[in-house]
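2024-03-11 09:14:02 INFO receiving multi-entity request
2024-03-11 09:14:02 INFO entity count = two
2024-03-11 09:14:03 INFO echoing inputs for audit
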Amino acid sequence: MASVPSPRQRSWVRWAGPLLLVVVLAVLPLVFPESVNEIIARIGVFAVAVLGLNLVMGYTGQVSLGQIFFLGLGAYVTAYGVSNDWNIVVVFVLACTIPAVVGLLVALAAARLGGLAIAMVTVALPIVGVPLAKRLSDYTGGSQGLSARFGDAPEGTGLYDDQWRLYLVLAIGGAVFLLTRNLVRGKYGRVFAIVKKNENVASSVGISPYRYKVLAFTLASLIGGVSGFLYMLVIQYTSPETMSFGHSIQLLAAMVIGGAGSILGSILGGAYYVLVPQLTNLVDPSLTALLQGATLLVVLFVLPGGLASLARPLGRGRRSSHDRRGPTPPITPSATTGSGTAAETPETERQGHP
Amino acid sequence: MNMHSRSRKALGIAVASALALTLAGCAREGGGGGASGGGASPGITDTAVKLGISTPLSGATAGPGTCTVAGVTAYFGAKNAEGGVAFGDGKTRTVEIEALDDGYDPQRAKANYDSLKGDVFAMTAGLGTPTNRAWRDAAIADEVPQVLVMTGDPLFSDTEESPWQLGFVPIYQNEGEAFGKLLASSGGAHKVAILSQNDDYGAGYVEGFKSAVEGAGNVQIVGELTYEATDTSVDAQITQLAASGADVIFNAMSVTPLTVSALQKAQQLNWLPRWFLPSNTSSPGAVVEPGGGAAFPAIYSVSFAKAPASPAFAEDEDVRTYLAALKEHGNYPDAPAFPHCQWSWMVGATLEQAFAKMTAPTREDFMRALRSIENFEAPLMLPGTAVSTTEAGQPAVPTVVVQKYNGKGYDTVEAFE
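2024-03-11 09:21:47 INFO inference complete, emitting structure
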């Protein structure tokens, strides 16, 4: 951030937004009632899951229908570790690395295929995952699933459990979002973009599309594992139903609705995933599926770029007013710096929906 | 300069909002605990009590899920129309029901619970093992009753593990055991083939069956195979079991199309054993008729509820009241397609019993009252079955009767023929 020299007052503006966000996020859990905190925590869980999907699909252009499998795997690893009283830090590390390793192994094979073939391979993950989770009942609790309660507020903090959990979700989720944002804004983001746009061009400038597809898929699996950890923290229960194929499609719909290839879109996608079933329940509990389908269609017709496209004119206007950085070609040697809190750079935005 | 004033403004807003929010935070005291000490629990007043349901109203299990809401809503709708339900503390209250859709997704079930727990007195009647398990721990921690839920999972009936829970329907073991007992007492020698689903559902049935026939000299298990709930065919298993020469098949299946194809495959092989089907895959219209069940010497199942479609109960007083209420108050104009409608109606009757025994409007007292019901024959129950909540480790309905298919519906049988 500090690499771009700018007048003092401008950097002030630049910092005010994120600072405000941090202050608000730090204060809100203390203010909101329990139910709202729980909803925000759930949104955090699925925002992270959508972010992982966005990394491989929105940014790198590889259709993945298996993201829910990595969420489920992370959740199972967490549940198993917690119920065996392992150190929670070890559990967290395992919940990240095991899905990442599995993702790497799958990607090594799947990324050799192009286009929709990779989608077909990833479809297999939840389809294999559900019976596998039922069969390995010694580790997974079979179809009855595993409960694991952890993350109660430590004595002395004076916080309620839901507040403490929300802080954990915000801290872990926030870190993942920040790291991913930096990744996609930097060198790797530009490589992912060119791999998405045209693999031959990527090869011609010395980039191995295969290697970066594997990298994106592995990172997406890792982020999926993190969301699985958060899932256990918030929901405290996992079963084969968690990773059913339908949820993978819902996750995909959430990503598209939020905005493909957008950090803000991932958060909006998570919000969509959690809030729409709740809102449709308020309207008419017996028509939820219909109302959700209607919502999906309306968003796609009115906002083909997803909900994140609503925020774009705003972000763009602000950026041009004090950043003076026009759209740059995808491959540039200079470091990219962002100014918005969560809005995207123009070039990656456009690639989100060709 | 313009920028400068803007940053100032932003900072000002940040500080102001932070202050405002911190002040508002003081209002939260006591909000997180749920039940407050002293008076009545949440969700109950002197004139009304509110119950919550989280159940699948969309997706593959929407049919039974809709029934779980319709039955209990109809029951209390009819009671409310008469003025309300008399409680043990001398007050008469109307019963409101708030049902939310979870689509059989555990995560959404937990979300529904979170949104309901502050407003409702108790959660009830929801369908599904994973969806009920998802918020079981939370319900225990919050001390919210999660009672008379529709799952055969024994965990919900374990008083030690689940102090705020109680299952309603018989656990899988109860059903398998009932059939095993009948077979063991039949006198004749029988060779039994077992085909079960490879999960806790199938294992529970087989466990109950085996415990009942253990030591019975006349019952020999000659073949035992499993299938996966995700399998699309069990032809191979049926063929293999047909070769065992068994005259009885104990078929613990939960997947309707697979059950139909199993019945058909056995006929193709000209293997015609007596057949046992679990309660949820023994529907005459959806399973036995399409499967050509009339070809077999006998098809047995278990039940505890009167089937409203059966001609035997067409004139039954209970059934007529029930069907009328379902139409008028349950928002369910069609003939009930799933037994869950009847079960849910019984849940209503059982809750009314518990309400009548309550002496204080608290969740603790409700649980005590609910666990003290003995041999209550709820409306729509078959003779020989009853609601009993006093025995630890058993659901509210621990007994089932074995029934035999008669070409249209089922009749209760005393002996194996």
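2024-03-11 09:21:48 INFO post-check: Chain A has one domain: 28-351.
2024-03-11 09:21:48 INFO post-check: The longest strand of chain A covers residues 146-147.
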